[in-house]
Amino acid sequence: MKISARNQLKGTVVAIEKGATTAHVRIDIGGGAMVTASITNEAVDELKLAVGGPAYAVVKASDVMVAVD
């Protein structure tokens, strides 16, 4: 895989919840951290995502917000 995004988090798919058009995919990236992505059901099928299978969470953002209490 070649991609310009630098934030590539390899993990394991732990849940896929399909809705009418969109799915929520949870990826365990280790260290007790989970990433949840909203993608189309079509993308889930095309990527052949399955619980227990490997996947990357690729984060590409133009803005990052930081907050404190």
Automatic annotation (TrEMBL):
The keyword Transmembrane does not apply. The keyword Nucleotidyltransferase does not apply. GO terms for biological process: molybdate ion transport. InterPro entries: Mo/tungstate-bd_C_term_dom, Mop_domain, Transp-assoc_OB_typ1. Keywords: Molybdenum. It comes from the Bacteria. Residues 2-68 form the Mop domain. Signal peptide: none annotated. This is Transporter.
